[in-house]
Structure formats: C-alpha cells, structure tokens
Write a structure and sequence with these properties.
The protein is mostly helical and 170 residues long. It has 5 helices and 2 strands. It has a two-stranded antiparallel ribbon.
C-alpha cells in the first residue's frame, strides 16, 4: 500500500468526524441543550477533553501529509471554543489534505522527519514515522473523540465510525 493511500484513510476519518459532530448537534437539539457542552467531555479526569481530541487528530493528519510530502503544514493555534469553530478547523484541514496527490508522496518512505521530542541526534524515516507514530496517534485521538460522543449518548455505531468504503462492482 502506498503512503498516499494510507494517508487518504486519515482524510476519510476526518470527514467521518465532521459528520459525528453533525450527529452531536442534532442529538443536543433533540434534547434541548447547548451542544457546546460536549467540548469539555472527558473519559477520565486526567484525559484531555473533546476539543483537544479534534485538535490533535487534525494536527496528526496534517503533519503526516506534510512531513511525508516534504512540505510545511499550516498552523492552527488551538483556540477553538465552539463546535462550529472545531468544524471550521476540521474543514480547513480536510481542504488542505485534499490538495495532495500521489505525486506528492513520491520518495516519502526515505524522507527524514525531525521531531523535537526525539533523543538528540535521532530522526525517523517518514515511512516509519507514518506507521509507528502518525497513524497510531491519529487513530487514538479520532477514536477518543468518537468514544466521548458515544459516552454522551450520541447515537453513533460502527457504521458511523467506518462509513466510507471504496466499493467495486462484483
């Protein structure tokens, strides 16, 4: 599987996350409460809230695409305080990721990724970064965001988690 197709799964999941926020807003509307209360949800007191999970998921995706393509990722200052602001961030990152094509990932496996938290003098190859760091980190935050919404009562199921499939005629 190419680096491009692997990264495309991140894009698909961000689109799914956007639809989960639609579901959360509808759920809140049906129960007549402000959906922005969902922003502070945590699974445990020592975990980051829903807002952070969305911010971290978008960061993981945009940095993975950018690092594998040898480009600079756009900056997002983590200042979102409403679901609409989170959705704007999601949609901005989705638009950025949709600008990448297979050619952007040529030679990606051999690109060097420097991360500030690695031991001094250590780097990762971009292919290793994608599979060992970016993908697990991305799915951790997407799944946590999903779990927070489910825990709040938003009616999401596995089909809403995995809603984009590439189907072929039999």
């Amino acid at each position: 599987m190419s680096h491009y197709s692997t990264c495309r799964q991140m894009l698909a999941m961000l689109k799914n996350l956007d639809t989960w926020i639609d579901d959360a807003v509808a759920y809140a509307g049906d129960r007549e409460f402000d959906p922005n209360v969902l922003l502070t949800l945590r699974l445990h007191a020592d975990m980051h809230p829903f807002t952070f999970q969305v911010q971290a998921a978008t960061d993981a995706a945009k940095f993975a695409f950018a690092r594998l393509a040898g480009k600079e990722a756009p900056s997002h200052p983590d200042t979102e305080t409403t679901l609409e602001e989170l959705r704007a961030r999601l949609r901005s990152v989705i638009e950025y990721l949709e600008g990448f094509g297979p050619d952007d990932f040529e030679g990606a496996g051999e690109r060097v990724v420097k991360l500030s938290f690695l031991p001094p003098g250590k780097v990762m190859l971009a292919g290793d970064y994608l599979t060992e760091m970016a993908m697990p980190n991305f799915f951790f935050h997407v799944t946590t965001a999903y779990a927070l919404l489910r825990h709040a009562g938003v009616k999401l199921g596995k089909r809403r988690y995995i809603q984009t499939l590439t189907l072929q005629d039999a």
